[in-house]
Design brief:
CATH architecture of one domain in chain B: Sandwich
Helix content of chain A: 25-40%
Strand content of chain B: 25-35%
Number of domains of chain A: 1
CATH topology of one domain in chain B: Immunoglobulin-like
Strand order of the largest sheet of chain B: 11-10-4-3-16-1-18-17
Shape of chain A: globular
Helix content of chain B: 10-25%
Pfam families (chain A): RAMPs
Oligomer: heterodimer
Order of helices and strands of chain A: EEHHEEHEEEHHHEHEEEHEEE
Largest interface: A-B, 43 and 37 residues
Shape of chain B: globular
Number of helices of chain A: 8
CATH class of one domain in chain B: Mainly Beta
Keywords (chain A): Antiviral defense
Organism (chain A): Thalassoglobus polymorphus
Number of strands of chain B: 26
Number of helices of chain B: 5
Largest sheet of chain B: 8 strands, antiparallel
GO biological process, one term (chain A): defense response to virus
Distance between the termini of chain B: 42 Å
InterPro entries (chain A): CRISPR-assoc_RAMP_Cmr4, RAMP_III_fam
Distance between the termini of chain A: 6 Å
Chain lengths: 277, 384
């Protein structure tokens, strides 16, 4: 099965809706059940690709061939878009790209199965200890403040990590900042930021006459510069080639809600290819 | 040809619909629950399709006739393949469904409130007259001082823990897992978008519940009959909505708890528990009949049934990918169902013990009806 791995770098806030409210946020983002990491589910990614195909004037038989129809599966298989780097604001510096050992391990496994890659990253052991400040791996900025939490430096980033991430970036200038802004924290700390560290925007509808609020709601978004990756595979030969044509001229895709207010835009990296025909 | 263990890991999340309709535009598409673990037909279909792909099938239409002798043809003919499972694995340890004659209660442990084993059920000393005749119903050997006895719903136990159960002992708490320690359901929302208006299409909102496995949890099936030189692609579609699974293959013996032969030999009594659902054989009129007390359990001649703890029937169908339609749903006895049996012919014991790990009932090659044989629990000597 031929496979491709794309990096998705958020160019704008992203709102992959969950469709249900759980707390004070009226419109939270979708999350993985077992981990609480934000996720863009496969059906949403596939729908976005189908939308692109329509914009590129694919006829119905082409669309059905690749994306399937009511009673017949298509030739394209689309995974969830999985989070890898989450921008988090810092009191002491510019924002930091946060990740954790679990996400790095998961990406490593995904690379292995998608790209048949044997160059495994070294495993990272980073655990929070009670009554000690949690630790981070990354550039030496001394005590690091992320949101209201303080982190102590435990060492450098693992060898090869940045080189492994660079292919997921659509822009060289963005990936060049990794050495200064990439930080690894423990799985528990990352989960905290994934749960409570996303931007929450208040939105409002005003009464046209007296400009008072008719409706106020809060929605959660993923910040620009979030990095996701997505795996595409083909059930039947040719489907991936056709999808690649979509990205050939303009490697951008709009996913999720709030399209009309500029949300949902990702820049796609060049695909990393693997598998067999 | 050796037994191969094929392990499935999700790339993201999986969806295995039950027998209820799940069609575009139909009503009732909210909170569509996923089954988990999937039943054998789903896993068998995936394995056969993956093997065919490994032999050059392109995933569309019928596969080459040359493959029929090994892979079979259609939904019911599975060729030379023989399946065991599917079972969950966690950190390379196989997990089996806890048999229904082990009861427990909810106890507060360090991390959560968990089901913990309290007592076994065993046939009562005296028979009770009922519509089945005079029957020795299963009764708890001990009654807890407080709390209620609960069956092991959604509980799984390691092979070592199961061996203890078969000896009539309590499994260690760290060998027991509730389903919420193995996977979580993940509600998703989908819609069809009108491309022109960029709004949701009327009546096309749906919300399936997917399954997301915890770290180091996999689904495994053991397969005999795969030619030595055949391989399985690393990545395959698995279940509904064409979700992806990463497959790993290794030579591995089928997981089987130990049979306490000495205890059974000493007492002349034994239990028979289902590791996988069992399809009761049908009569000529198409009726399925339950084995009754006093009768012989299928394929276990030389012993009679005294009593049983049998779960509610479950309905299993499958998906016919050739005709693109669901298979008819049939009633199966659930895994964990347990019969209490007594020898009627002492010379039959050795052949009965050989049935440990074998299958009874219909569709044995699909892995249905796999049984394990244990000792009757007694209050004497139990560690509960």
């Amino acid at each position: 099965m031929k496979t491709m791995l794309y990096g998705l770098l958020a160019e704008s806030p992203i709102h992959p809706g969950a469709g249900q409210s759980t707390g004070f946020v009226d419109l939270p983002v979708a999350r993985e059940a077992a981990t609480d990491y934000p996720v863009i589910v496969g059906s949403g990614m596939k729908g976005a690709l189908l939308g692109m195909a329509r914009d590129h004037d694919w006829d119905e038989s082409q669309r059905n061939d690749v994306f399937g129809k009511h009673d017949n599966a298509g030739g394209l298989l689309v995974s969830d878009a999985r989070l890898l780097l989450l921008p988090v604001r810092s009191l002491t510096s510019s924002y930091m790209w946060l990740t954790c050992p679990h996400l790095i391990d998961r990406y490593d496994r995904d690379r292995k199965r998608t790209l048949d890659s044997d160059d495994q990253l070294q495993s990272i052991v980073l655990e929070d200890v009670a009554e000690q400040p949690p630790q981070y791996l990354g550039p030496d900025v001394g005590e690091l403040f992320l949101e209201e939490r303080q982190f102590a430096r435990a060492g450098d980033l693992p060898d090869g990590l940045i080189e492994t991430l660079i292919p997921l970036f659509a822009h060289d200038k963005a990936s060049a900042r990794l050495s200064k802004q990439l930080v690894v924290v423990s799985d528990d700390s990352f989960t905290w930021f994934a749960r409570y560290g996303l931007p929450v925007n208040a939105r409002n509808i005003l009464n046209e006459k007296n400009k008072t609020s008719k409706n106020l709601w809060y929605e959660e978004t993923l910040p620009p510069d979030s990095l996701f990756y997505c795996l595409l595979a083909e059930r039947s030969a040719g489907a991936l080639g056709k999808v690649n044509e979509l990205f050939g001229k303009r490697p951008y895709i709009q996913v999720g809600g709030n399209e009309t207010i500029g949300h949902g835009w990702f820049a796609l990296s060049a695909p990393q290819e693997g598998g067999t025909q | 040809m050796n037994t191969r263990m094929i392990s499935f890991s999700p790339v993201d999340a999986w969806f295995f619909r039950d027998g209820r309709p799940y069609h575009l535009g139909e009503s009732g598409q909210t909170d569509v629950q996923s089954l988990f673990p999937p039943h054998a037909p789903t896993v068998i279909g995936t394995v056969r399709a993956a093997l065919a792909r490994g032999q050059g099938w392109d995933g569309r239409g019928a596969w080459n006739n040359d493959l029929h002798s090994t892979l079979g043809n259609g939904a019911h003919d599975i060729g030379a393949l023989r399946f065991t499972g599917p079972f969950l694995t966690r950190k390379q340890q196989t997990l089996l469904p806890v048999p229904l004659h082990l009861l427990g209660g909810l106890r507060e442990l360090s991390d959560a409130v968990r089901w913990t084993p309290t007592t076994f059920l065993a046939p009562s000393e005296t028979a009770l007259e009922c519509d089945l005749g005079n029957v020795r119903f299963p009764v708890p050997l001990n009654h807890p001082k407080e709390g209620q006895l609960k069956e092991p719903a959604e509980m799984w136990v390691t092979v070592d823990g199961y061996s203890r159960i078969l000896r009539g002992e309590s499994p260690e708490q760290d060998s027991l897992f509730h389903s919420d320690q193995l996977w979580k359901t993940e509600s998703r929302v989908g819609l069809a978008r009108d491309h022109a208006s960029r709004s949701a299409e009327e009546g096309k909102l749906y919300s399936p519940s997917f399954v997301r496995l915890h770290k180091e949890v996999q689904l495994a099936v053991w397969v005999d009959g795969i030619p030595d030189d055949w391989t399985i692609p690393d990545l395959n579609t698995f279940g509904g909505e064409s979700r992806l699974a990463h497959c790993e293959t290794e030579q591995s013996e089928r997981p089987l708890p130990e049979v306490p032969a000495d205890k059974i030999r000493e007492s002349g009594r034994f239990t028979v528990s289902l590791l996988t659902p069992m399809l009761l054989p049908s009569t000529a009129t198409g009726q399925q009949t339950h084995p009754q007390p006093g009768e012989t359990l299928h394929s276990l001649s030389g012993a009679k049934i005294v009593s049983a703890c049998v779960g509610k029937p479950i309905r299993i169908g499958g998906w016919n990918s050739v005709h693109r339609e669901p298979e008819p749903l049939l009633a199966y006895l659930p895994a964990g169902s347990t019969w209490f049996c007594e020898l009627t012919r002492p010379d039959a014991l050795d052949s009965l013990l050989k049935m440990h790990g074998q299958t009874i009932g219909d569709k044995p090659d699909h892995g249905f009806g796999q049984i394990v044989i244990g000792a009757w629990p007694t209050s004497k000597g139990d560690t509960l």
